[in-house]
Amino acid sequence: xxxxxxxxxxxxxxxxxxxxxxxxxxxxxxxxxxxxxxxxxxxxxxxxxxxxxxxxxxxxxxxxxxxxxxxxxxxxxxxxxxxxxxxxxxxxxxxxxxxxxxxxxxxxxxxxxxxxxxxxxxxxxxxxxxxxxxxxxxxxxxxxxxxxxxxxxxxxxxxxxxxxxxxxxxxxxxxxxxxxxxxxxxxxxxxxxxxxxxxxxxxxxxxxxxx
Length: 211
What we know:
Elements: H1 5-20, H2 24-36, H3 38-60, H4 63-68, H5 71-97, H6 115-127, H7 130-143, H8 150-174, H9 178-208
Helix pairs in contact: 1-7, 1-8, 2-3, 2-8, 2-9, 3-6, 3-7, 3-8, 5-9
Protein backbone atom coordinates (compact mmCIF):
# COMPACT_ATOMS: atom_id res chain seq x y z
CA UNK A 1 0.00 0.00 0.00
CA UNK A 2 1.03 3.61 -0.16
CA UNK A 3 3.32 4.74 2.61
CA UNK A 4 0.81 7.42 3.45
CA UNK A 5 -2.85 6.77 2.69
CA UNK A 6 -3.37 10.51 2.89
CA UNK A 7 -1.79 10.86 -0.55
CA UNK A 8 -4.20 8.30 -1.98
CA UNK A 9 -7.18 10.21 -0.59
CA UNK A 10 -5.78 13.44 -1.99
CA UNK A 11 -5.49 11.86 -5.44
CA UNK A 12 -9.07 10.62 -5.30
CA UNK A 13 -10.39 13.99 -4.15
CA UNK A 14 -8.42 15.78 -6.87
CA UNK A 15 -9.79 13.40 -9.49
CA UNK A 16 -13.39 13.99 -8.34
CA UNK A 17 -12.87 17.74 -8.71
CA UNK A 18 -11.13 17.41 -12.09
CA UNK A 19 -13.58 14.91 -13.60
CA UNK A 20 -16.79 16.16 -12.00
CA UNK A 21 -16.36 19.86 -12.67
CA UNK A 22 -18.07 21.28 -15.79
CA UNK A 23 -16.10 20.65 -18.95
CA UNK A 24 -16.52 19.44 -22.54
CA UNK A 25 -17.07 15.80 -21.53
CA UNK A 26 -19.55 16.42 -18.72
CA UNK A 27 -21.50 19.01 -20.68
CA UNK A 28 -21.74 16.76 -23.75
CA UNK A 29 -22.96 13.90 -21.56
CA UNK A 30 -25.58 16.16 -20.00
CA UNK A 31 -26.79 17.40 -23.38
CA UNK A 32 -26.91 13.91 -24.87
CA UNK A 33 -28.80 12.54 -21.86
CA UNK A 34 -31.47 15.23 -22.04
CA UNK A 35 -31.80 15.17 -25.82
CA UNK A 36 -31.31 11.52 -26.79
CA UNK A 37 -31.97 9.62 -23.59
CA UNK A 38 -30.15 7.47 -21.07
CA UNK A 39 -28.80 4.74 -23.34
CA UNK A 40 -27.18 7.24 -25.68
CA UNK A 41 -25.63 9.15 -22.77
CA UNK A 42 -24.32 5.93 -21.21
CA UNK A 43 -22.68 4.96 -24.51
CA UNK A 44 -21.04 8.38 -24.73
CA UNK A 45 -19.99 8.12 -21.08
CA UNK A 46 -18.43 4.72 -21.71
CA UNK A 47 -16.17 6.31 -24.32
CA UNK A 48 -15.20 9.10 -21.92
CA UNK A 49 -14.45 6.59 -19.14
CA UNK A 50 -12.33 4.48 -21.50
CA UNK A 51 -10.40 7.55 -22.55
CA UNK A 52 -9.85 8.56 -18.93
CA UNK A 53 -8.57 5.12 -17.95
CA UNK A 54 -6.30 5.01 -21.00
CA UNK A 55 -4.82 8.42 -20.14
CA UNK A 56 -4.35 7.26 -16.55
CA UNK A 57 -2.36 4.22 -17.71
CA UNK A 58 -0.27 6.45 -19.98
CA UNK A 59 0.46 8.84 -17.12
CA UNK A 60 1.31 6.03 -14.70
CA UNK A 61 3.77 4.49 -17.15
CA UNK A 62 5.38 7.82 -17.92
CA UNK A 63 4.30 7.99 -21.57
CA UNK A 64 2.20 11.13 -21.22
CA UNK A 65 4.92 12.78 -19.11
CA UNK A 66 7.30 12.15 -21.98
CA UNK A 67 4.77 13.66 -24.37
CA UNK A 68 4.44 16.73 -22.18
CA UNK A 69 8.20 17.31 -22.39
CA UNK A 70 7.96 17.89 -26.14
CA UNK A 71 6.36 21.26 -26.76
CA UNK A 72 5.68 20.66 -30.45
CA UNK A 73 3.78 17.43 -29.81
CA UNK A 74 1.61 19.09 -27.19
CA UNK A 75 0.94 22.05 -29.48
CA UNK A 76 -0.29 19.68 -32.19
CA UNK A 77 -2.47 17.91 -29.63
CA UNK A 78 -3.89 21.22 -28.47
CA UNK A 79 -4.72 22.28 -32.02
CA UNK A 80 -6.43 18.97 -32.81
CA UNK A 81 -8.37 19.02 -29.56
CA UNK A 82 -9.35 22.65 -30.09
CA UNK A 83 -10.57 21.94 -33.62
CA UNK A 84 -12.72 19.08 -32.36
CA UNK A 85 -14.24 21.30 -29.68
CA UNK A 86 -14.95 23.95 -32.32
CA UNK A 87 -16.71 21.27 -34.37
CA UNK A 88 -18.85 20.43 -31.36
CA UNK A 89 -19.53 24.15 -30.90
CA UNK A 90 -20.69 24.39 -34.52
CA UNK A 91 -23.06 21.45 -34.08
CA UNK A 92 -24.47 22.85 -30.85
CA UNK A 93 -24.85 26.30 -32.40
CA UNK A 94 -26.70 24.86 -35.37
CA UNK A 95 -29.00 23.04 -32.95
CA UNK A 96 -29.65 26.26 -31.05
CA UNK A 97 -30.71 28.00 -34.27
CA UNK A 98 -33.01 25.13 -35.32
CA UNK A 99 -36.68 25.75 -34.41
CA UNK A 100 -38.34 23.28 -32.06
CA UNK A 101 -40.27 20.40 -33.59
CA UNK A 102 -43.59 20.07 -31.74
CA UNK A 103 -44.06 16.47 -32.85
CA UNK A 104 -40.69 15.31 -31.54
CA UNK A 105 -40.97 12.83 -28.70
CA UNK A 106 -39.01 13.46 -25.49
CA UNK A 107 -35.66 11.78 -25.21
CA UNK A 108 -35.49 10.92 -28.90
CA UNK A 109 -33.41 12.25 -31.78
CA UNK A 110 -34.52 12.78 -35.33
CA UNK A 111 -31.51 10.85 -36.58
CA UNK A 112 -30.73 7.91 -34.28
CA UNK A 113 -27.03 7.46 -33.62
CA UNK A 114 -25.59 4.04 -32.89
CA UNK A 115 -24.12 3.28 -29.49
CA UNK A 116 -20.76 2.50 -31.07
CA UNK A 117 -20.68 5.88 -32.78
CA UNK A 118 -21.48 7.63 -29.51
CA UNK A 119 -18.81 5.60 -27.76
CA UNK A 120 -16.24 6.67 -30.34
CA UNK A 121 -17.29 10.31 -29.95
CA UNK A 122 -16.82 10.16 -26.20
CA UNK A 123 -13.46 8.43 -26.54
CA UNK A 124 -12.20 10.90 -29.15
CA UNK A 125 -13.44 13.90 -27.19
CA UNK A 126 -11.54 12.82 -24.07
CA UNK A 127 -8.37 11.66 -25.77
CA UNK A 128 -8.13 14.90 -27.78
CA UNK A 129 -8.30 17.05 -24.65
CA UNK A 130 -4.74 17.96 -23.57
CA UNK A 131 -6.07 19.25 -20.25
CA UNK A 132 -7.12 15.70 -19.40
CA UNK A 133 -3.59 14.46 -20.11
CA UNK A 134 -2.00 17.18 -18.00
CA UNK A 135 -4.52 16.56 -15.22
CA UNK A 136 -3.56 12.88 -15.13
CA UNK A 137 0.14 13.75 -15.06
CA UNK A 138 -0.52 16.03 -12.09
CA UNK A 139 -2.59 13.37 -10.32
CA UNK A 140 0.00 10.65 -10.76
CA UNK A 141 2.81 12.99 -9.71
CA UNK A 142 0.78 13.95 -6.66
CA UNK A 143 0.06 10.38 -5.60
CA UNK A 144 3.22 8.49 -6.46
CA UNK A 145 6.65 8.76 -4.89
CA UNK A 146 10.06 7.45 -5.85
CA UNK A 147 9.67 4.11 -4.06
CA UNK A 148 6.22 3.46 -5.47
CA UNK A 149 5.20 -0.14 -5.99
CA UNK A 150 3.02 -1.77 -8.63
CA UNK A 151 0.31 -2.10 -5.97
CA UNK A 152 0.33 1.66 -5.44
CA UNK A 153 -0.16 2.28 -9.17
CA UNK A 154 -3.00 -0.24 -9.31
CA UNK A 155 -4.72 1.35 -6.32
CA UNK A 156 -4.63 4.79 -7.91
CA UNK A 157 -5.75 3.64 -11.36
CA UNK A 158 -8.46 1.30 -10.01
CA UNK A 159 -9.81 3.90 -7.61
CA UNK A 160 -9.91 6.62 -10.25
CA UNK A 161 -11.53 4.18 -12.70
CA UNK A 162 -14.33 3.52 -10.21
CA UNK A 163 -14.74 7.25 -9.63
CA UNK A 164 -14.75 7.84 -13.39
CA UNK A 165 -17.59 5.37 -13.89
CA UNK A 166 -19.51 6.83 -10.96
CA UNK A 167 -19.14 10.44 -12.09
CA UNK A 168 -19.70 10.18 -15.84
CA UNK A 169 -22.34 7.47 -15.72
CA UNK A 170 -23.98 9.39 -12.87
CA UNK A 171 -24.31 12.45 -15.12
CA UNK A 172 -25.88 10.25 -17.79
CA UNK A 173 -28.43 8.77 -15.39
CA UNK A 174 -29.36 11.98 -13.55
CA UNK A 175 -29.77 14.15 -16.65
CA UNK A 176 -31.84 11.51 -18.48
CA UNK A 177 -34.60 11.55 -15.85
CA UNK A 178 -38.01 12.83 -16.89
CA UNK A 179 -37.73 16.16 -15.01
CA UNK A 180 -34.43 16.85 -16.78
CA UNK A 181 -35.83 15.77 -20.16
CA UNK A 182 -38.83 18.07 -19.69
CA UNK A 183 -36.51 20.90 -18.70
CA UNK A 184 -34.44 20.27 -21.80
CA UNK A 185 -37.51 20.38 -24.05
CA UNK A 186 -38.49 23.74 -22.59
CA UNK A 187 -35.01 25.22 -22.77
CA UNK A 188 -33.42 23.21 -25.59
CA UNK A 189 -32.25 26.12 -27.70
CA UNK A 190 -30.82 27.94 -24.69
CA UNK A 191 -28.97 24.84 -23.52
CA UNK A 192 -27.57 24.21 -27.00
CA UNK A 193 -26.53 27.87 -27.11
CA UNK A 194 -24.67 27.52 -23.82
CA UNK A 195 -22.96 24.39 -25.12
CA UNK A 196 -21.97 26.19 -28.32
CA UNK A 197 -20.44 29.10 -26.41
CA UNK A 198 -18.68 26.80 -23.93
CA UNK A 199 -17.24 24.51 -26.58
CA UNK A 200 -16.29 27.46 -28.76
CA UNK A 201 -14.51 29.23 -25.92
CA UNK A 202 -12.65 26.07 -24.86
CA UNK A 203 -11.75 25.28 -28.46
CA UNK A 204 -10.40 28.75 -29.18
CA UNK A 205 -8.43 28.70 -25.94
CA UNK A 206 -6.73 25.48 -27.01
CA UNK A 207 -6.10 26.53 -30.60
CA UNK A 208 -4.69 29.94 -29.64
CA UNK A 209 -2.82 28.89 -26.51
CA UNK A 210 0.94 28.50 -26.42
CA UNK A 211 3.13 26.30 -24.30
